[in-house]
Hints:
The complex is a heterodimer. By secondary structure, chain A is mainly α.
Amino acid sequence: MSTTDGPLALGSGGGLAARPMGVFARPGDTPGWRGWVTTVDHKKIAIMYGAAALFFFVIGGIEALLIRIQLATPNGKLLSADLYNQVFTMHGTTMVFLVVMPIGAAFMNYLMPLQIGARDVAFPRLNALSFWVFLFGGVVLNSSWLLGGGADGGWFNYAPNSGVIFSPTHGIDFWNMGLLLTGIASLAGAINLITTVLNMRAPGMTLMKMPVFTWMSLVTQFLLLFAIPVLTAAQFLLMFDRLFGARFFDVSAGADPLLWEHLFWIFGHPEVYIMILPAFGVISEIIPVFARKPLFGYPFMVFSGIAIGFMGWGVWAHHMFASGIGPISVAAFSISTMFIAVPTGVKILNWLATMWGGKLRFTAPMLYAIGLVTMFTIGGLSGVTHAVAPADTQQTDTYYIVAHFHYVLFGGALFGFIGGWYFWWPKVFGYALSDKVGKANFWVLLLGFNLTFGPMHILGLQGMPRRTYTYRDGYGFNLWNFVSTIGAFLIALSFLVFFWNIWSSRRQAKVANLAMVGDPWDGRSLEWMLPCPTPAHNFDVVPTVRVLDEFWHRKYGEDERGRLVRIAATADVSQHGDATDVHLPSPSYWPIVLAFGLPWVAYGLIYNLWFCVLGAVLIIAGIYGWVMEPATEPGADHGDPDDHGEPHPTDASGDAAATSSTSTEAALVD
Amino acid sequence: MTDLADPHVSGAPGDPPDAPDATHASSHVTSTGISNEKLAMWVFLGSECLLFGGLISTFLLYKEKTADGPKLHDLYDIGFTSISSFVLLMSSLSMVLAVSAIQRGDHRALRSWLLVTALLGSVFISGQAYEFKEFLNEGLGFTTSPASSAFFTLTGFHGAHVTIGIVMLISTLILSLRGRITQEKAEAVEIVGLYWHFVDVVWILVFTIVYLIK
């Protein structure tokens, strides 16, 4: 591991090296729940991200169904106005921060190290910390349901409306604390994954030979890196107002109600791309495989992703056209918003051009990828109508907006991610999901999705307001609301089909007991070189990369007329999962100990500052335990009987022998 | 978008992937040539810029919004704050000397300069605590006005960062005393130094924006 020689690694302190400090015996590679709790393996962490996101998806989905039942008919009685506010706020917050973002994190954690030919991420324990902090953040946020009710100010919780005067329960405090925690998780993850991509690529893998998914992940992580601290700053202001009586949003004292909106949307608009770019990356991997063509215009795909990343910082005020920011601001942000449609359009065109003339195979993952291209295009077009400020003034706060962002986030991000699940499921779990059920799943979802969100365009243009708990009979809203509710239950049905597919495919795979081949789709990027499921150590030998789509070019060449010819059997150019002389970072308790301190601080700030002391003790213990513990336990290495703690024969600085057995990674998370 | 990868593009086409090649030995070399830890610190500091950016923007928006409370510029003691700023800037010099010492393998000098840096940082924090107390006495509390909330939040966040830096310096000092900072590990001190210099640079901004510009 290239990570084991960190500069904070402890020196060759003789006796100290053999028995590192620590109150815990170092966990081994134990099976069962302890193996999951202490794991630092990027693949297991990714699986936990995915599982947690699906759990929160069920919660957020139930909240969505409650909203739709309430609105199915005029004068709905299921939810009171107050409870409705909480349900739609928590639905939005959950779906954004606890579902779409962690699913993206799951894909990035699992695939990025594999696609660049790395053994793990740069800081494996920091990766575990990210997950646990995210999970505890989600728990803190949702615990508000049991402790007096959820946040009720909309997912953006505009101040001063989110101040104590207008929202006296603790709901918004839980929202604040929960999202501060998930923010810490995202920030640590961004630092980790950026370092991984920049520093740990296989020999020969230059930046412009990286798969597009890895590229989009890198852009996403940079967006997270710079967007999250702005939200964090805003949340601190709100927290100080609500808990300690600060005056940031006290308009009577001269505070500016636009401050929160600006800070929130400077975070919030890059956030939109944080959610969609990983899904763009996913389908940029799926479409070339099932079209049996290289991705059309790879450099354009990469640079349009980077362009979206930059331009995403210059469009935030289009969320505020109705707030009175002045005609010059409105005009400027209107133009920049129209411009950002250009790189997105480039991507759509390139996916279509990749499919053009290809030998298309309409498997389940391909259907979802095409679903993304079409549904996102609809959402993108309605998005362009928001860029026209006069039209947007009519659309603001109506269901037209709701229709738009569900088309881009559900029709875009989630369709791509579900396609990614069908595509990489064999790589992760060692069995394939049934393609037949997957296709049925897709058509039910596509129908339900369009029935739910398509009519919202009409409702919005008819003037139906968002965030209003009911409507009266005779406004002309009845029919489309009822259709929308039927669609919502079809979406729920499609996810039941998905969960059933997981269960039944797994059972069939167990009964059939057939080994999964490593490369079921005839894939292109490095992860398909590995057996299914991926072995713990990833690569037996790190491959040397010469071209984009390296694995494909090891399988296929061209004849003199430029036609595709197979030059090697897949098995001959695949790896076999033989772990000899491979050293992996050891599992650790400290990430979860450190992470467990944070919810105590969160509850302490809300209820009683003494809890904070307990949290601080856990955090400090976690940090020092972490720093004192080497990343790789001496003698716990993988498959090397006469361990001398030297992962690799030489090192550039020539000090590997002196230090690698006692090294640790930098614990530089504040 | 330059690519700094160390190219090992030597294999002939169709090179069997499991052939013993140079990759195994060279995987200690990072693609950029910068160690993971140092790169991660730079990336983290990039993120911190936006945190302070948000807080500084808030202060700029609110500095005149003093409600019924005292005006900020009536309370500032520019002379006093200039001296404590000078002390903090000098700590960057001593930090550089500490890094230089360990790079030369001079452990005694390393410990001395780490201690000096931590002490200078502590003097700055003490000055800030004294200043806060004076402001409270003059009737400027955290909850007095939007301006006071913004002032205490911005300078308080900076102070918290300095405090964390002092803890890092003292931890490094203790590790050095226990013989765990070898000359080869000079980069660990350098990374702590990166953080420390960043906090100093932020203070130059904060001092200029909060205290000097009327």
